[in-house]
Amino acid sequence: MSELTSGVTVSADPGAGFGLAGKVALVTGAASGIGRATAELLARAGCLVAAVDVNAGGFAGIELGDGGSTDVADVSVPTACERVVTGVLARHQRLDILVNAAAILRRVPIAEVDAALWEEVMDTNLLSQFAMCRAAARPMRKQGSGRIVNISSTAAFNGGANNSSVYAIAKGGVLALTKSLARQLASDGVLVNAICPGGIDTPMGRQGFTEERWNAHYAANVPLKRAGRPEEVANAILFLVSDWASYVTGHTLDVEGGLLLR
User: Fold this and answer.
1) How far apart are alpha carbons 258 and 234 in whole angstroms?
2) What are phi and psi of 224, to 5 degrees?
3) What's this model's pTM, rounded to 2 decimal places?
4) Could you give the residue numbers annotated as active site?
5) What is the chain's Cα-based Rg?
6) How is domain 19-202+229-253 classified at the CATH fold level?
7) Residue ranges per domain, the chain?
8) What's the half-sphere exposure (Cβ side, CA atoms, 13 Å) at 8?
């Protein structure tokens, strides 16, 4: 334990004071990157975490604690989203937190984007979030409470670096989805927010970069001179789903080392 200058006592336990003990959380894209870091942090904070990903092998070694579970599902398919939420409700009879972290990145110039690629990126990055939110909102509204965090990207504001234009378009849609849901669900006690990560050191984030180019890019463009870590995004998500963010909805929180400074 330690004391801040204000006299507030804090703890090394990530759940201390956040009001998350016993909460039921569903995290998509949980086999790697931001999703995995978030699922493990929420578990350490006392949540019962349902981790969802299309990659069964990626769950190896994931630490979800007692009451945690994994589910292999392709959330780009709306019926799979419904099934996942139904399964969580069958196990826990409620759903308190949804974090939409499932995503894919395809670096293709717009002139070369065909219908199949467009659908793949949109279905995974935008349709999945819409379908998961729709499914999760039903039990949350009945409960009169809930927290949803949608993962967007700084690409939504800069058009996408290195030919990630379709990804950027989808992530812009995530912000519109977040604001629409925040307005519609507020009266039911459901808070909906978005996170916009910048460059985060994950396999997806490093796509298309050599090690030398990766380091040079962040040294030249980010005030903090480095890429972010998945755990740093998870920390921001922890805040948004906690009691500390009880008056925050419809907000977009940048986690990008000063890249945008907006």
Assistant:
1) 17
2) -80, 0
3) 0.92
4) 167
5) 18
6) Rossmann fold (3.40.50)
7) 19-202+229-253
8) 5
